[in-house]
Amino acid sequence: MTAWTGRALLDDDDDEFDFKKLFLHHLAPGLGCIIAFLMFVSPLKTVLQIRANKHLGDLNPLPLVAIIANCAAWLIYGCINADPYVIAANEPGLLLGIFMTVSCYGFADPKARDVMLKALMFFSVLLSSVGIAIALFIEDDEWASKTAGYTAVFILLCYYGAPLSSMAEVLRTRSSASLFWPTSLMNTINGLLWVAYGTAVNDPFIAIPNAIGAAFGVIQIGLINIYPAKKVAAAETAPERERLVADGEAEA
User: CA 158, CA 235: separation in Å to the nearest integer?
Assistant: First the structure.
């Protein structure tokens, strides 16, 4: 494994400062780290409100589980390739994802809890199996990187596609209450920045899935604008809220 030593800021054939290389190799992933943090933290206000109200509301908790898996997979890839930008972009997301998932689990209905638990167990088995395979059976560094890369790409697509069920619900109900527009916006911007970085360093594992993710984000923003969120009447949600709180207290 070769340690990351930074990208050249100067052309091989020119001693003048190259701003394009600076932007693509350093500023783009640096901004990507910031945008990634904002993307991962964007549901936090809603999660804190859920903790205060003891009611999950319209938030789809499945993307929170996907945040954990996505960040863990990219941390493995970043560590194998010694890429500080990939590592810095995903470490905060892993911690935030764990906090938000655990917070929402207690106030979700039994069906949502079951889905969250199954998703978490699936990703845990997948990541631990990949880690064991790389550590014990794959000696070639290139193949170790590819194995981690394919795994990270698969989970990243799951993460970007996690709101697909919500998108179908939006089309069915003509309400975007189940979509969170700050997350969709951050997905789009974040994806474009990492496409620029992945293309610059010739890393398809970074460029291609982030291009798909940016496209998902654009579609979600379009749905949010076409179908504004419809608020449910308080009289209709009060009994359900009481039941959810009781369930949460029973399992606490």
Answer: 36
- 57-100 pLDDT, tens digit each: 878 888 899 899 999 999 999 999 999 999 999 999 999 999 99
Residue-averaged pLDDT of the chain:
83
Does residue 127 contact residue 151 with C-beta atoms inside 8 Å?
A: yes
The number of helix segments (H) and strand segments (E) in the chain equals 11, 0
Q: Return d(Cα 206, Cα 199) in angstroms, integer.
A: 8
Report the 10 Å Cβ neighbour count for 114. 11
Residue 72 tokens, joined: 């863990």
Q: How many other β-carbons are positioned within 10 Å of the β-carbon of residue 120?
A: 17
Q: Judge residue 118's burial from the number of C-beta atoms within 10 Å of its C-beta, 0-12 exposed, 13-18 middle, 19 or more buried.
A: exposed
How far apart are the two ends of the chain, measured CA to CA in Å? 46
Q: How deeply is 15 buried, as exposed, middle or buried, from its count of CB atoms within 10 A (0-12, 13-18, 19+)?
A: exposed
Radius of gyration (C-alpha) of the chain in whole angstroms: 20
Length of the chain: 252
Give the integer Cα–Cα distance in Å for 84 and 27. 13
Closest C-alpha to 173, from 235, 222, 226:
226
List of residues 6+ apart from 29 with CB closer than 8 A:
85, 86, 89, 193, 194, 197
Residues 93, 98, 102, 108, Cα dihedral to 10° = 50
CB 159: neighbour CB atoms within 10 A?
27
Q: How far apart are CA 39 and CA 70, in angstroms?
A: 13
With CA atoms as reference, report the closest residue to 183 among 76, 30, 47, 55.
47
pLDDT of residue 195: 94
CA atoms lying within 13 Å on the CB side of residue 102? 7
